[in-house]
């Protein structure tokens, strides 16, 4: 049993029974969005009083539970705040949320830093004392397990299909290893995906561009990269608006538009990529790639870092300079632990966290070179 899964389920059931206000807070990527929709549909099927589904705007407010979010959400306090795919490194913010009158449940799968935040219930298979053997569930996989625990035999076969499809999409999008629980979730979810009842999924399989791809896997990859396009309306990412909508017409319009933006983004990414490659060619001896600037579009950082780290077989740190701060995205080949490296250099950071092979950071502009030098030193002695 995943540690605290039963406690989290019990607490959410109690909130439903007592008509407590419930806030769902998800990361804005597909894993977080799929988690939030799974939880939303689960609790709504029981009559839960969900007053807000919140996604932080990573580009403007940063990752995780943000001070800006708490400022807005405080209007709903007291309430139960269920955070998914984030939170495990939000020590200050969670302490603040408690002060404001929230009960906090975290469903996260990111690496636990030195201590745990002061949340009431934490589900994270990477925490100490969790004896569940498989540690690599995505947040949406954990949320699906939580939904099973909450609903028990109230989860109809139809509902199960539509939730596990989301869990499969989010697990693949988060690039989790396709083993054990993840493989089960993916196999079960993909079995019905092309005939999904979810209008948002149907909209994609109806797109001309998708029909060109030869098999389900490649179609799904295309769908995921389109859903990843940043397009926020009233605080809601397009992926959430599409996947949670029940209007066929609304979803096809959004899907068509995202597809256009997606093509544009690809061109922008390729431009930036060729610039970064030229820089990297000058610095072949360094153990890492560390590049950034004011014109590094935040939304492209993850993709850039991922491509460069594969090409160079080195950890790649890509950042955007925004005012006084640099916000970065990190990818590394397997065997290299970027979270451990940043822990070693944490005196130069504002925050950092994530997975060994995919992580992020915020660093003050005045410390960015110290941070880079510290990482270079670290990887000189810890290279795979
Ligand atoms: Mn995730």
Mean pLDDT: 95
Structural class: alpha/beta
Q: Strands across the major sheet, in which order?
A: 2-1-3-4-5
Morphology:
globular
Helicity, as a percent range: 40-55%
- Which CATH class of the largest domain is shown? Alpha Beta
Order of helices and strands: HEHEHHEHEEHHHHHHEEHHEHEEHEEH
Q: Low-confidence runs (pLDDT<50, min 5 residues)? A: none
Total number of domains: 3
Written description of the protein model:
With 384 residues, the protein is of the alpha/beta class. It folds into three domains: 5-193, inorganic pyrophosphatase (n-terminal core); 194-280, no CATH class; 283-381, Diaminopimelate Epimerase, Chain A, domain 1 (Roll). It has helices spanning 5-17, 30-45, 58-61, 67-73, 91-99, 139-151, 157-173, 180-193, 199-205, 208-211, 216-227, 238-243, 248-282, 301-312, 338-344, 368-381, and strands at residues 21-26, 49-54, 79-84, 102-107, 121-123, 232-233, 236-237, 289-293, 316-322, 325-331, 351-355, 358-364. The chain has a five-stranded parallel sheet with strand order 2-1-3-4-5, sandwiched between helices. Strands 8-9-10-12-11 form a five-stranded mixed sheet, with helices on both faces. A two-stranded antiparallel ribbon has the order 6-7. The longest helix is centred in the C-terminal third of the chain and has 35 residues, at 248-282. It starts with a helix and ends with a helix. The site of manganese (II) ion (MN) has 6 residues, from loops. Manganese (II) ion (MN) binds at residues 31, 85, 109, 138-139, 174.
